Amino acid sequence: MRIGEAWHLKWRDVDLEAGTVRVNEPEKNSNPRILKVSNKLITMLNTLPRTGERVFGAVLRASVYGTFWEQRRRIARKLQNARLLQISFHTLRHWKATTEYYRTRDILHVKQMLGHKSITNTLIYTQLINFESDEYSSAVAKSLEDARKLVEAGFEYVTDMDGCKLFRRRK
Question: N or C: where does the chain have the smaller number of CB atoms within 10 Å of the terminal CB?
Answer without folding.
Answer: C
